[in-house]
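Researcher: Quick test of sequence recovery. Tokens follow.
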């Protein structure tokens, strides 16, 4: 996501780094390249025209400080305009715990609406809500079964009534939710085309029946600018209050994310960033602008780590690092924690200066699985004392993990190199008063 756009923008910015000042000539040339990059990312052409005009006017209308290079100045202007383009400040969608709040989900069939419903329910359960999902899709075969299956896997209840119409199910579901004291009710409606008047009439009737606090339009990021056009039609029918962009982790070019707020006047509230139930994130315009420009997103990276890291386990790990007792089992535990945080490529893209360098790079995530398989083929004693791994043991481990002896040897060599590096750091930090410089490593993979 955004890789191609990020690479193109970085190329434009690099040209400014070699300039002594910003002139009308070089800014015009830059804007032509920016315009081309945005159009290729499938951003709405009117939005592109307005964006490039605004950047050009600001670049020529302000004096560059002597302490700031033209490249830095240009980055700041583009960053600020990207944030503005995507809605400015993040729109926080919060609900009161002591009342029954209602969310209505709408969108085209195949946009990921049912999956987004379950992700949204899980998101708010983590915030202390007691959610209920209501299956109002009576048109798609197995739609109710899918929602019930998702609810069962997440231990989130689903209200369903087979053989009844969507409006009746919605009314009964709301009555049930209020009676049972659920604080959040999410209605999963059928996917429909905006040109299907009969289906749109049903959606309007469900809307009137439940009087929702929020109406989220679920758009598939893979459809690009067309997702924005369809969302505009839905908004006219049921007054959508927010957008959830699904499949943002795929091969989408990013046009929908960049265009949707400007075209609709409706904020992008959440983005789906993977297939796992917890792969739903609030949308932060400033953070995504930073990612697009290769500036990273350290705040999101830290937040992901905080959700995974156990404080007590971190303290134990720090003690082991201090005493040079870090084992292969500890290594495996840290590896699994990182995997819980999401894809390796997404995590790397959040580190400043690295994101744009990943374009076209194939990060082989299978390597992590191979490492895990090798360590899991060891006994607990071997994980704690890798020095006892002789030739026959290494052969047994290779056979058990489906890898080669060379793979096992390579892992052990890398692990030993890492432990030696940790010893050197301990010696250096010991001279400076202990492990104070190591606190930033808590809960992270100790490379």
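Model:
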């Amino acid at each position: 996501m955004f890789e191609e756009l990020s690479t193109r923008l970085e190329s434009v910015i690099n040209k400014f780094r070699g300039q002594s000042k910003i002139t009308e000539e070089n800014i015009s040339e830059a804007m032509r390249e920016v315009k081309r990059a945005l159009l290729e990312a499938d951003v709405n052409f009117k939005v592109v025209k307005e964006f490039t005009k605004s950047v050009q006017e600001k670049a020529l209308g302000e004096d560059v400080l002597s302490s700031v290079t033209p490249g830095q100045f240009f980055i700041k202007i583009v960053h600020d305009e990207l944030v503005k383009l995507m809605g400015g400040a993040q729109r926080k969608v919060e609900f009161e715990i002591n009342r029954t709040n209602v969310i209505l989900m709408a969108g085209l069939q195949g946009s990921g609406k049912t999956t987004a419903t379950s992700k949204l329910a899980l998101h708010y359960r983590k915030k202390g809500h007691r959610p209920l999902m209501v299956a109002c899709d009576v048109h798609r075969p197995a739609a109710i079964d899918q929602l019930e299956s998702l609810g069962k896997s997440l231990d989130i209840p689903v209200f369903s009534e087979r053989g009844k119409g969507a409006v009746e199910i919605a009314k009964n579901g709301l009555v049930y939710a209020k009676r049972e004291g659920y604080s959040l009710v999410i209605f999963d409606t059928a996917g429909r085309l905006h040109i299907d008047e009969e289906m749109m009439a049903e959606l309007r009737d469900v809307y009137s029946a439940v009087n929702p606090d929020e109406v989220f339009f679920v758009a598939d990021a893979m459809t690009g600018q067309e997702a924005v056009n369809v969302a505009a039609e839905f908004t006219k029918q049921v007054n959508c209050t927010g957008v959830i962009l699904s499949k943002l982790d795929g091969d989408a070019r990013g046009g929908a994310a960049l265009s949707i707020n400007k075209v609709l006047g409706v904020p992008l509230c959440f983005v789906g960033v993977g297939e796992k139930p917890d792969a739903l994130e609030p949308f932060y315009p400033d953070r995504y602008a930073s990612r697009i420009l290769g500036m990273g997103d350290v705040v999101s990276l830290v937040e992901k780590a905080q959700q995974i890291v156990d404080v007590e386990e971190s303290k134990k790990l720090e003690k082991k690092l201090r005493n040079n007792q870090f084992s292969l089992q500890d290594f495996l535990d840290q590896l699994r924690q990182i995997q819980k945080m999401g894809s390796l490529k997404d995590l790397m893209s959040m580190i400043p200066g690295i994101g744009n360098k990943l374009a076209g790079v194939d990060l082989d995530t299978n390597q992590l699985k191979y490492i895990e398989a090798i360590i899991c083929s060891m006994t607990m004693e071997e994980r704690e004392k890798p020095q006892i791994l002789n030739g026959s043991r290494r052969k047994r481990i290779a056979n058990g993990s489906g890898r080669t002896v060379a793979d096992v040897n390579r892992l052990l060599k890398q692990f030993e190199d890492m432990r030696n590096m940790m010893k050197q750091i301990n010696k250096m930090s010991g001279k400076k008063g202990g492990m104070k410089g190591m606190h930033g490593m808590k809960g992270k993979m100790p490379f």
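Residues 218 and 244 are 5 Å apart (CA to CA).
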